[in-house]
Amino acid sequence: MAVDIHFLGHAAVELKAGDTTVLVDPFITGNPQAAVEASELEPTHIFLTHGHQDHYGDIVEIAKRTGATVVALTEIAGELGEQGIENVFNPNFGGTVTFDWGWVKMVPAWHTSTTPNGTVTPPAGLLINIDGTLVYHLGDTALFSDLQLIARRGDKIDVALVPIGGHFTMDRYDAVTAVEFINPGTVIPVHYDTMPVIETDAEAFKADVESQTSAQVVILAPGETHSA
Ligand code: NI
Ligand code: MN
User: Fold this and answer.
1) Closest CA to 163 of 183, 130, 193, 122
2) How far is the CA of 52 from the centre of ligand 2 (A)?
3) Could you give the 3-state DSSP secondary structure of residue 122?
4) How many CA atoms lie within 13 Å of 190's alpha carbon, on the beta-carbon side?
5) Domains identified in the chain and CATH numbers
6) Sheet holding 69-71, edge to edge
7) What is the pLDDT of residues 145-188, one digit of tens each?
8) How far is the CA of 64 from the centre of ligand 1 (A)?
9) From start to end of 182-221, where are the E strands?
C-alpha cells in the first residue's frame, strides 16, 4: 500500500497508510511554515525525535485530545507521562516498538536536546516501517559517519527526511554526503527556510543530490503530499 507523506512545515510530517496516521515532530503552533492548525490533526500515533520546541511543539495537546500512541526517548516519554499522556512507549537507542502496521526504531543523531520543561536527553533519528515502506526521519543532526551504519543495517531506505538548513543542523552541502551515506530512493528536504538563519537553496540541494547520487529529491511546500 502507498504511504502518503504530508509535509506540515519545518520538520513536522504525517505518514498516512490505511487507518494509520503517524505524526512526527508536531511543531505547529508558532511554526511560521505551518500548513495546518494543531487542532485539525487526528493522528493515531505521534513520534518525537527530540525535545526542542521546534519538534516537541503541540505534542501534549494533540496526544491528550486524540489519545494517540506516543513514542519518544525514555526521559522525554517519562515527562510526557507525568503530564497525563497515557499511551507512551519509551524506547532508548537501538530499541524498536512494533505495531500491527509496522515499527519504529530509535537511532542516534548528533545534536542536543532539552524539552520546554527542562528534560535533557540526547536527540534521536527515527526509522519508521509503515506498511512495508521504510522512512528515515533524521531528526536534527550534523553529518556523522554512522548514518551509513544506520541506513545499511536493514532494507533499503525508501524515503529519507533530511535537514538541510544549516545553523542548527547539517547544511545542504553536508546533507548531500548524508544522502550518499543513506542511499535512499527518495529524499525530502526539511528543517529549512522556517526562519532567516536556516534559509537555504533547496533547488540547488536537489541538483547536487541528483547529479552525485542515485536518489531523487522531492521538494514539498508546507501542506503538500508525496506518495511513496
Ligand atoms: Ni533541535
Ligand atoms: Mn530543530
Assistant:
1) 193
2) 6
3) coil
4) 32
5) 4-227 (3.60.15.10)
6) 88-89, 69-71, 45-47, 20-24, 12-17, 4-9, 225-227
7) 999 999 988 899 999 999 999 999 999 999 999 999 999 999 99
8) 23
9) 186-190, 216-217
